[in-house]
Structure formats: structure tokens, C-alpha cells
């Protein structure tokens, strides 16, 4: 029976008291694609935690509650939806943002408060009930036992802005219709669900889902479809048009017969009990039932409904794995929309192997008790790449790629593997507090990286970990620790990205230290122990905290790790080492000094950039402070010395002080032994002599970089070896090279100065990819020499190197391409490209062949390195420009099975960069007219080539429209550098609906980069596109573009477009003019940048209107509404007043119909002259006598009503104003006089008026009379103007005098008696 719903505006939402616990929840929903509505019920089994529980508070946002019962008794409820406050009210402006925020904060508590009926009593549980509750494994042992309550809620969901998204139902959206749920589990975000629940992450219970949907795709009708088009899903190819604007008309889906017969499927969290359960309804409906017996949070319950195809990914598992795992084997199923099954197979192929790896390394599948399968489903418009639910990962179709595309293999595979790892930790195990969220991120990505090491190899794993460590050192400046970062993850997306970067690295270096200390028990063993403790119930409610993880690490690793956690988890920053060494011949020791310099001077801080301006501003406003600089990081560090005999000696030293000296013993007695062997091998290789038969004591294998050793190669490639003086110095060295932190146990930067030949030996003879990477990074930072270029070239040409090291060598070769060295680095790059990818002795490239993935990346890397080459004037050499144009023009991919979209995009980008060199400075000299003409012809040819690929993409779309997006980016660079007279309007067609999402976003980004955000028209359109966009992913990306545009304005960046108003072009000269340096100084701080932004936009009325429209949008979600409110906070000062708008009153025309009936009609004439101020409602009439006689009395009455007479005069004047029935109203309010009449606000009921004729001042007095008049005023009229006249007996009005005014009556005779005439005007 439905309960009684009280108005939400009469109740205040109450905070949820910990007075109950949900043991089990059942959700029964029916999906209606026509109205985009979810209708259903939910039943919750609630365990009271106290005897006096009288109310239940639930999250119930965006839901319309129809009725509530508690144990089958109707209950009173109060529903306050926070989304009702996420809009701007009538009369509000952008300056009233603080009032909107306060209302929103007050409403952002539990939305639904249910009063437990008086008929329901909290009783203690019996023995049978206690056993049932204990089996739920959710009851708190410390709480008393009470009988459970059954709460049933009937509700519906329509017009949702968060939590559920409908696709393919817009007027011009031709994608396959489907709907899915999504809820963020990040701390400090605003979750939204499609069912009432306790919306906290620790409110875990068991679940049962029943979803009813159409049986076939043809059973769906679609609103307002008029056009026909082929249905596609995703944005990998072609246009992706979507618009979910609601219309009232209904029509059938425009489907082919095959599409109408596509079966609708529901993929939900947990085990599917039935896919066609019986129910009372039409045969065109179908019911799916899922249950999840493992307690999970409501954030991790979700479902997807649509015409999905199933792909059995278990077919990629080898039979040996099935036999080895036995009953622990988990099935893997992929789901996608029609036409994308091959892409799912291509992307998800490693997932069965991944799950098997996790089961062997970290324990059984956490949902094994109710589900023997893991599901992954790909949908459109998902805000993030992956949303994790129990046994189901909802992924974006942006992750899918065909088999012919090579670039996204590693990042996409890692993201999908992380989605699998999140089933163990992230869904099954959750953080106890927001600060503990770093553990979830670190452990899940650590698990993913260990599998990626198994899949891709150790070199790939360590190389990427070193790249990430270098990135962390660059970013971890003036940032909070990963522990303190948890509550701030909702501020900006870059916060979570930084946590994903640093948190797994912390576990990586911990793993390195534990493995080195114990030999076997590393972080993988710690995670296994955590999962085991959660399985046996040692972790309360599976809520993991940092302190528990540290204690477990101490036990498993047999070490005290409190110092490590204090420095790397609770502390911020990274160490910077300054290392020096000296060989002491007397003591035969190597004296090393290790100093930490990160705390010796203040951190320079990160330079403000447009992309991070909004993040910095939010952190400052929310008091997110950077962690203090740690002057000392302690721990073991490994120093590996490769001595002269070629033997590496490892020495582990313990860093305990900021500056510490060590004496490392030297072991080799004959330091020239290895040098002679190396020289012998080089000579033998040059002569072509095979030394394989010689004894191992005489031969040392020369590992890497021993290519191009013959004299012919040296002459052809212009190689330069070490001089005799260098060889002599090298022979006198006591060791080959020294490595600090050889086992990669630290995240930091090490400055260690060694001679260049030592780093060369490290690059060529150390097999560790991290050592090779450190050597190339050091060589790149030195002054270029022919010898360094030769070493880097040999590294590039040696295929035994890991391909990432060869790419680093290519990047370092661009540094050696300088005019002082006769362009030796440029020659080596061109020669290498010709050797690898061109016909012999010809610059013509061969047909593309990307079957070798390593060579594909090298082919893309060489043009990137060439594009960075500049001469002494900062210009690109002409031969490099011709190189890019020729490679574009003669690119042949006809015989290649893989896509060349990325390679072509690289060439277009490099060509554009070469044309915009020297910061866009043009040479206006006329010394060489032929060169000017040739340059213009080359520019025209380059533009034609870029435009050709752009047009190709319109007919044959490339992967994610790579040709179009790259061409737009190249054109933006040329416009910004003023190289070519390209109209900026060329980008406008690409921002319109009808283009794919990636094209629209790129066009918006290019226009913002060109300074178009300063133009009202474009800015309004960008903001309108944001708040009217139905896709949550597009809204999130458009907001990033808006934030970047705001950052450019705040930092005074950008070019091109200026605001087209007179004030924008003002130039101030004199003392008030500020130099460019002063302007840069002002925006160097975040406060100065905020002031600059406010100064530029605070008075822009068009922006105010756009922001106000955005605040009133019914599309944006809660977090997006808060982002707009924060923008208002940046730009405007709060104002505690509102502008009231009143409609101008119209004159009314009165017509007498007879029998005391009047007809009032409204005219088209407006009253524009303001009247005296209105007063409180009352009624009174002033009789109008002859003007000259009664003028004073009228003035006195008017003054009395205005309150200007003293009390004695008020009583005397008020004697003529009496009211028969309502004396109280007369005493409380004083109406005002208008002309000869009275303005009377209309009362709410009929009023009886007492009319007293006035006594004339001259002549004999008359006997007083009273006449009662009954008036009824319509409610729609705002004002009543009443004028009472007493015409004379002889004439209806006094005769005018010569001056136009009526003459006074004669004083000898009183006025003749006449009828009272009441004239009333109603003003609407």
C-alpha cells in the first residue's frame, strides 16, 4: 500500500545515524526504452542496531518514490532530492552562486527519510533469527540481536542526469539502443544510483537483481525518428551523432528485418539465475534475474541492457590451463554491440590468461561462490574507460581497436587487465577511509603490471617502470602525499592520474627491497596474504587500511617497514642524489660521497600552465597543501662497480644521513686485462677473424653496439672512434663504470658524473635495460660530439637492443644534429631511415611493412627526431622539410596488413612543425627572390598534401579519424605561426553535431588554442555545447577544454582572436602601461592568475548569461553543476540581493453592462509611469468633493495614510474613514492616495465598505448618512484604483475656468444633493 509522501520543501534531510544495517537488497526493474524510464520496486532486509530506531535514511536521488511500506505497513516519508537544488532559480544570477551552493550542501545528505510506523516494533531476535543473521556474515558482533525489518519501496527513474545513461534514443542518434548504469566509487564524489540504498562504500550487502526488458530489438519504439541511416556504434569510424532531446511524438525504430530480430540481453552483476523468468506481462517482454551472494557496495552493482553479442573468450585459453586449474577455472565472456565482435576478440584475448595468472599468484576468484565467470561489456559514451562492478566490468567502446592497429595494444591491454585485477581489490576489498584509496590503486595496478611483465617480457616491464619513475620525479613537486591525496581525487582528473603513476611505483620499489632482502617474499606475497585474510574474515567487512597493510608487510617481509611508509606513503616528494667518486690508489678503495640535495634549497615549484590552472586554483581554495620537503630519505642503495677485469662487484650501503661517505674496496689487481681483450675483439671484428675457438680466458664477448665496425662502414657512415689520447686515458682507468641504485630500489634523480666513455661502456656492456636507459639520458645531456653520435647510431642499428632503447638513441641523435658538427646527427638519422625503409641507394621509401612491431615504432620515431632539428637561426633545414613532404606524398600502404594512420599522422605533424619554426618569425628580406618563390611553392604543396589526407578521411575513415584530427591540429599550428593565410572559420564545420566525438573535440581544442574563447559567439557556443550535450563523456572532455581556455586567459596565453568590442582594443600608454615582464610576474602566482582571469571576464554580460543557462540545464550532473558553481566563485563576488522583475501593468477598459455589472477588458497600453509604493492589503475609500473646498481634506487624509501626521491629527482625520466589518485590517495598513482616488490591493474575500459623505466647510451642516457597498475583486488583478465622485445636481462636473481648472462652488449655498458614483479601474 503506498505511503504518504510529504512535500520535500517542508522537511530537512537528516543525517543517517548508525542505527541499522542492510543485510540483503532485491531490486526489480522494468526498462522502458520509449519513455526512457525505469520503474520498479526494491526490498531491503534491515537489521536494527538499536531498540529506539524510529527512522531510516536512504540515498534516493533522481528517484520518484510512489510508496513505502515497512513490514507491510504504510510509512510516512520525506523525500528531498538534491538534484532539485542543482539548478538556478528564477531571479537568481551568477552572483548568487553562494546561495545555490549552500542549498546544495544542505540537501546533499540522505535524500529519503522513512518514519517507521507505530504498528512496527523493534523486537529481539529469536534463536532461529539470530542464526539467519549470523549466516549473512554482516552483523556486528558487538550489537544486540533484533528481528529484521522488510522495507519495500515503489519508485521510478526518469530524466536522470547521473547514474544511468540511454544511448540510441535521440532524434538523430542512429546507434543501437542500449542503456547502462555507472557509479563512481572515488572518494568525495556524488554517487547516484537507480535504486534506493545506503549510498556509502562500506554499506555492503548481498543482492538480487530482476530486470525486465523487451524481448527483441523490434519490440522497442523510438521517439520521433524521421530519418533513416545505417546503425553504427562507437566512434572508431565515421560520424557518431547523438542527441537525446525529448520529444512527445512516438514512432517505430527504423530497422531492417534482421535488426528487428536481434535479441535484447541484460548483463548484470553476479550470477545469472534465469534469462527468461516467468512473469505476468506481455510476451514481448523478457525477465533476467541475477544474484550476488558476496556482500558488495551499491557502487559495485550495475547492469547493461541492449542487443549485445556474446563472445566466449575462454576459447583463447589453452587446454593445459583448464586441466591445471580444474574447478578454479573461471569463464570469461565479452559482450559488445552488433558488428564489433572481432574487435572484442582482438582486445580481450589476454584476459583468460590474465585471470589464470591471478588465480595462481594471488588466490581464487573472489566471487567464485556465486559466479564461475567474469564478464566484460563495451558500451558507448561511458565517462571513464572502465567502471567496475561485481563480476562485470563496463568498458567504453573507445578501448576497442581492430587487429590492423598497433599503437593502443599496450595501454589498452593494461587497462583491461587492471579491470580484472579490480575484482580482487577494488570491488571485493575496498578502502576503509578515503586516505586508504592509494592502496586500492597501488595493489590493483601492481597486479596488472606483474601480468604485463609475464605477457610482454622483463625489458618492457622495467623500461616502462623507469619511464614512470622519471615522470613522478618531474610531477611530485609541491604535491601532497599519496595518503593525503585520497580525499582530493575529486578535485581534478589529474589527481587520480598522478596517484595511478606513483602508488604502483611505491609497491614496486618495496618489492625490489623485500626480494633482495628475503629472496622470495615480495609484495606479491603480501597481496596474497591480504586476500587470504579477507577470505577467512580477518579483515572487518573487507575494508583495508594502510596500517593493516603495513603490519602485514612487516610479517611477510620479515622487516620493519615503518620508516619506509613514513617516507614514501605518508611523506611527499622524491630524493635527489648528488654522487661523487674518487679512486684512492694507496688504500685501493673507491671513496664515494652521496648527498641528498632536495632539502637544501626551496623547491622551484611547477610552472603554471593552462592545463593545470584550474587544479591549482581548486587546491588552493580547498586548502590542499603540499607535503613538507623531506631532507632525508633512508634505506639501502646498491652500488655496482664494473672493475677492470669485467667482473661486477655489488656493494650495498645504507643511507642514513643527508651527506654520507663510503669507502668501497677494490678487488681487481690487473686493471688493463679487460681493455686488452676488448681491443683484441674490435680488431678481430674489423678484420673478419672468428675468435670462437679461443679459450674463454682469452676472449670476452663484446655484447652490444659492435655493428658498423669495418673500415668501409666507418667511411660510409662517417663514424668517429675515440682518439689515441682518449684510449690512453681509458686504459689508465681502474674500473669500467659505476652504477648507483643498480637494483632500481629508489624513485628519484641521481646526478653522478662519470667520463663519457664510462657511460658508453655501460650502454654497450650492461644488459640491464635500465642501465642502458640511464646511459643514453646522460649522453643526451652532454655537449654533442661525433663520438657520441657514433655510439648512439650503433645503438640504433643494433637490433639486439630493446626497441625502447633504440628509440631513446634516436631522440638523442637529434641533439647531435647541430651545424657546428656539420650536421652529423642529421646525417646519421637520414642514413638510418634510408637503410631501414628505403630502396638501396635511393630516397624512395618501400611499401610499408609493419609486421615487425619494433621497426614500426622506429619508423615513427625517426621523423619525430628530425622535426626537432634546427639551425643557428632556429629554422628547420630545407632538406628536412622536403623529407617530410616526400614521405607523405609517396607513402604506400597497399601491401601492408596494418593501418598506417598513426605513421601518416606523425608525418603531418612533423611537416607542420617544420613549417612553423623560429616561433613563426618570417624572413622579409629580398636577398634571394628565387628562394622566396620556392618557399611559397613548397608551402602550397605542403598544404595540398595535408588537405588531401583530410579529404581521404571523409570518404574512407581512418582509426578514430586520425587523419582529420591531425590535419586540424596542423592547420592550427600554421595559423598560430602566421605561416599561411588560412581562415579560422575552417574549423567551425567540425564542431557541429554530425561529426565524430574525437573530431569535434579536436576542433574545439584548436579554436581555443587560437584564442577564440575571447569571442562571445564562440564562447557561448562552447558552453552551450557543454551543458546541452547528452553524452557524459563529451561533457567531461568539453569541460577540460573550457578549463584550458580559462587557464590561457588567466595566464595571458594564446594568440589570434581578440574580443570584438571597443574596450578590448584599448592601449594604455604612459605610467599605467605595464611591460610584458610585469604581466608575467603578475600571473606567476595562482592568486595573480585568478585576479587576471576575473579582471578579463567579470564584466562580460554574455558570459554571465551563458553560465546562468548552464546552471539551469536539465542535462548536467551533480559534479558538473558544482564545477560551474566553482567557476562562478572564481569570477564573481557573492551578492546577497536579487533583482526582482515585475511585469508592466496594463490599462483596463471598463464597460457598464447595467444592473450593477461591469465588464473589464485589458488593453494593449502599458503603464510606464511608476506609482507610489504599494502597502499591505486593506480597503478604504475617500470621497471626492469639490476640488477647491476639499483639496486640503484629501491631502490631510493622504498624509494620515502615509503616517506623516501626529497621533492627535490621525484620530481627527480618520473619523471620516470607517470600515464596517474589518477594523483590524484598517488599523494595520494604510493605503496610499493616487490623484483623486485610492489604490487598493485586491483582498482575498469580499469586502464591505462604509462610505461617509464629507461635511462641507462652508454652509449649513448635513445630517450624516452611511451607505454600505459590497465589492468582490478578481484574484488575477494586482491593483484596484477606486474613485468616488459626488456630482452636483445641475451638472456632472464643475465648469472649467479660463485656466482649465474647475471653479470653486459658491459659499452661499451648499452643494445640491446627488448620487454617489463609484469608478473602479483594475490594473493587471
Overall description:
39% of the residues are buried. Helix 11 (523-536) packs across helix 12 (546-557) and helix 27 (962-976) packs parallel to helix 28. The two termini are 46 Å apart. The chain is of the alpha+beta class and 1324 residues long. Strands 6-5-9-3-2-12-17-16 form an eight-stranded mixed beta sheet, with no helix packed on it. A five-stranded mixed beta sheet has the order 19-20-21-23-22, covered by helices on one side. Residues 245-254 have a biased composition (Basic and acidic residues).
Helicity, as a percent range: 25-40%
* CA-CA gap between termini: 46 Å
Poorly predicted runs of 5 or more residues: 1-17, 223-229, 236-251, 691-701, 919-926, 1056-1073, 1176-1190, 1200-1269, 1275-1280, 1284-1316
The value of Rg in angstroms is 41 Å
* Beta-strand content estimate: 15-25%
Which sheet architecture does the biggest sheet show? 8 strands, mixed
The average pLDDT is 81
In DSSP terms, counting alpha (H) and pi (I) runs of 4 or more, how many helices?
37
The counted number of beta strands is 41
Strand order, main sheet: write it out. 6-5-9-3-2-12-17-16
